[in-house]
Amino acid sequence: MSRSTTTTGPTPSRTPVAAKLMGPLEWGLVLFLSLIWGGSFFFVEVVLVELPPLTVVQGRVTLAAAALLIYLHLGRHRLPSSPRTWGQFALLGLLNNALPFGLIVWGQTHITGGQAAIVNAATPIFSVMLAHFVTRTERLTPHRTAGVLLGWIGVVVLIGLDALKGLHMAAGGQMAVLGAALSYAVAALYGRRFKDLAPQVVAAGMLTCAALLLMPVTLVVDRPWQIMPGPITWTALVALALVSTSLAYIIYFRVLASAGATNILLVTFLIPVSAISLGALFLNERLAGSSVGGMVMILAGLALIDGRLLRFGLRLTDAGSAAPGRASRRRPQAPAQNR
User: Fold this and answer.
1) Quick one: which of 57, 115, 106, 37 has its CA closest to 280?
2) Which pTM was predicted?
3) What sign does the dihedral 172-173-174-175 (CA atoms) show?
């Protein structure tokens, strides 16, 4: 993951000026959320060995929707009955699930999960840019603008200048994931209209609609009833749906409620690390130097957009400049003590 502060998942686009303080529980949940969202790229690589992309996405959203509907039933949450609301759920499910999941899974047929996670980290960069043009409250500030520019330089370094000369399959995979990041950002802005609904209800509604939208296409294109995956693939698909989607949304909303959207942005910094680490440990993947350089620039850009490191640096500078002043005020007292 994700995005909207109320509905859509891993990367929120709104960044309030003041962030709430996080305790040990919130920090633990943020780290766990980054691990399971980073794990989604790993699980996709595993299931793609035996399953085509559309079937992977269909299985993910269908199982995740079923799990969230059960969760809502146990928590006595009611789904809306308005056809207009379900139409909005359908559009959100297309923008936030069906389209980006499909692009990412297809992209991972040509690039590694670690590379996909790095490119996907551009989501908040898109969010900040779009919010500047379509909202009145979230304008680009100088440090956010610098962060956006640095992040885009990182994307160019990651994809490589060769992609400008002629599109090859690896570059095509990276561009697909970049398209998914843009779709997530658009979904984040659109998802703000659901602020009066419980976010768990919106998540269940959009995933249910995404599953229904994808089903006819999946049945015609992939004919999934003819595919017989092995136990490893089934395990990875269930983990992708239940852990990296359903459970991830529940944890996301828990941290969002207690720590705020600014702190949940920390997940974006950690997802590529989790995805790369899992790929290196279990799939023997290695990143090229351009991928590492691009990741560093993208994460540095996100740090500028977030503003947390900038504020910390300013506090250190203020503390350092204040220290000599205190010392100089004490010096005139020394002769009096000698007397």
Assistant:
1) 115
2) 0.80
3) positive
